Amino acid sequence: MKIGAFIPELLRHLFKKPATVDYPFQKLEVPRDFRGSPYLRPELCIVCRACERDCPAEAIEITATNEAEKRFRMVIHNDRCIHCAQCVDSCPTDAMQMDTRFEISDYDRHNLKMEWEYVRAVVKPKSEPKTS
Amino acid sequence: MKFQIPIGPQHPALKEPISLRMTVEGEIIRDADLRLGYNHRGLEKLAEQKTWIQNIYLTERICGICSHSHTTCYVQGVEKLMEIEPPKRGQYIRYLVSELERVHSHLLWLGVAGHEAGFDSFFMYTWRDREIVMDILETISGNRVHYGINTIGGVRRDLDEQQVKHILDSLAILRERSEYYQHLGTNEPSFVARLAGVGYLSREDAIALCAVGPTVRASGVPMDVRKDDPYGIYGEVPFEVCTADTCDVLGRTVVRIKELFQCYNIIEYLLKNLPSGPVAVRAPRRAKPNEVVSRYEAPRGENIHYIKSNGTDKPERLKVRAPTLGNYAATIKMLKNGFIADVPLIFAAIDPCICCAERAVALVDARSGQERIISMNALKKLSRQVSAGNARKREAEWPL
Amino acid sequence: MATVKTLIYLIVYPGLLFLFLYSTFVEWYDRKLYARLQNRMGPTHTGRFGLLQPIADFFKLMAKEDIVPDRADRKMFSVLPAVGLAIVFTAMLLLPVWNYSLDRPSVTSFNGDLIVLLYLLSLPTFIFFLAGWSSTNLFSTIGGARVLTMLFGYEVPLFLAVLSPAVLANSWRLAEIAAFYRQRPALALVNLLGFVIALICVQAKLERTPFDIPHAETEIVGGTFTEYSGKKLAIFRLMMDAEMVVAAGLLATVFLGGFPGGALLGLVNFIVKTLVVVFFLSLIRATTSRIRVDQVVSFAWKYLAPLAILQLLIVILVKGLIS
Ligand code: SF4
Ligand code: SF4
Q1: Could you give the ipTM of this predicted complex?
Q2: What range defines the domain where residue B400 resides?
Q3: Residues of C in contact with B342 (CB under 8 A)
Q4: Fewer CB atoms inside 10 A, N or C side of chain A?
């Protein structure tokens, strides 16, 4: 046992740059594949509803606004989303994507809602929906 | 002079709500009592209403620190139910994340132990270095806490060369730092004085009270699911079960530090022998009626999930036995005849995760020994009765 | 004119205002140093380098709701912070910074002021004990009991350690002791052991790690101060900062040769020397972990007290040699 075993380490760091970052004035980069919030690329969505079915937080809501014209509306309730990216995995056409934003807090949960209204796309799915 | 002090449900030493009531004489604890139920979230019931795949993310949220432990335990069970076997590469990545999680959990624990002992510099340094492993986890899984890397039939993300190299490089730093903490943790006199001999749990008691994880290993019992009942790839990975025989908090610290080095070895082995191939197989949506018990060695001890399927795409029952629950009985034993000053340390030494362990409110009537479930209204009434009977005390008593 | 002078003396310099500002500065210094030793940043944003952070904290607490517990002794509970602050500020006036002149002792410099200063430094401990006691909260009561238990440990070694330089200098007056060691700097080395002991005891008196037992947050929440909030807590915190300045000043006077150089240079000396002492105190705080109250008492009586007596013996020997 040694008295003051920690002192050399402490004094060494006295003259070093702090390990912490001066957030929110400085920000660190998030890694490339960071799971931020999901967003839709409506031109690819074939409305297979795999994302809606697999979302564990029930954050995705797809409704038909006009059956004849094949118009659909998708709402992603970002306030409920748990950022698991399961929707991205489930989507057969890459229509669902993740961004890398992490500062998404808001005073009103309704501001977090994202909405798209679009005509169903006709694309060939890369694969069958993965988990059906 | 005896009096009762409450620790919790809200207390700076506890990051989660639990109530410890201690009867103390001066600074010495004569009796301790543990009350649970402040953090019950109805997770098991919720699991019955979600599909197999949705439940991965639900079980992940049982605990923040060992999130991967719970999903892996669950996913292992579901894979057995669905009779699928994840590909080798997927398994290697899955258990790689497991070991990384163990590293981060043990480093976190070291810091917490330092903080509970009032050794804040130690806390700051271990947590700074824990960031290294958090960063690794973030780059390979996309998130710092809820990695979400497991899926039924494998893992969701693959590793590339660059990441492998990054992990191996960071491991070198972590190794060096862990050696330093080992040296420091056993050399700083004021720290050792706080840990040694505190929270004694004999080998016999540890076995009798069904303690798990580092707590039981620090009492000299080499119990580790990874060795005793190897799951996944643990049958083929060389590693040792770390034990200590001091039976106290110092022993639990030593076990955890030793385990860190084992983890580094396992991680290195996994990365060096990473097989090629796919990382996941397609999983069916339904599972045949069956039941399964899945065991997993979480950083805090043995984690058990019992899963029952009924042929639909939802589980019929999911029962979770988190490691902390296994350690509660031993904690009471350890607290008795200790100092008040040691409560946070002893309690922290089991690395409690209270929300993991909160499952149901069962009240045990001390006199009749009968167990009964009490409704909220009855509870309220009861509390009113008790508080009405108490005379207001003005004179406090001398606690010396 | 004399009244105005007295008023300025009391309110501006070295009275309330200066002491307030300097105490908060020392708190900032301590916090920043502690943070940098831990590879953190410490306060950065309020004022330049976060210099105003302690003041901001003080005013923030002042504005917070002030609650007196139902069962507490209301009068006692409310009056303690003010009394404590008054005691510490009075003690501050005894430091030979503002009354440096040796030939014309002012009211605050007299033979025996060392004893008075030590006595005034003991009082805050009792204030803490009473504060804990009058809150009637269990945690506070335990905190209060711990304050007293610790007092039995460190008080005697502290007195012995501080008195030995006085014995060597053959004076009980702070300014004279300081002057003595300024003339014979070599003799200050004799007291090195005493200085170390006094540093440790002062750390215990200020209830900082490893002796922050009375308000060990992970064990007994806020300890003595659990029930204090708002203005009263703000004043208690200010009082502890000021106590740190006084204790550092005391050590600088008796061990480091005081603050020579008249009004201005003396002040500079004062600031530099107290910061040096506080540096050591922060270093102790960063290096150690909290120990148990029984360990404090046994440590104090097993090691500190015998060493302090040894120091006294050395001093007596040296005194015999030089005379
Ligand atoms: S990220 Fe997860 S929670 Fe969010 S919308 Fe997609 S599936 Fe749902
Ligand atoms: S899974 Fe993809 S294609 Fe299907 S509905 Fe969702 S976004 Fe559209």
Answers
A1: 0.84
A2: 363-400
A3: 292
A4: N
